[in-house]
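User: Fold this; tokens only.

Assistant: Input:
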Amino acid sequence: MDAQSRIEQRLTDLEIKASFTEDLVDSLNQIIIRQQQQVDHLMREVGQLRQQVPQDGIGMARNLRDELPPHY
């Protein structure tokens, strides 16, 4: 191979790598978007659960020993 052929081959290899890298970045970006949507959904659920819990703690056991299993 002469110098010109080697340069062309290296350029082709770099273009291929750049193409794969671009595809990978796009794929990772989609994963990040999905994960952020899941995080947002979970944050809303946690907020809803917090609203369901009494603020003053009334009705909640203070200790696991305060709650007897149903068969006792």
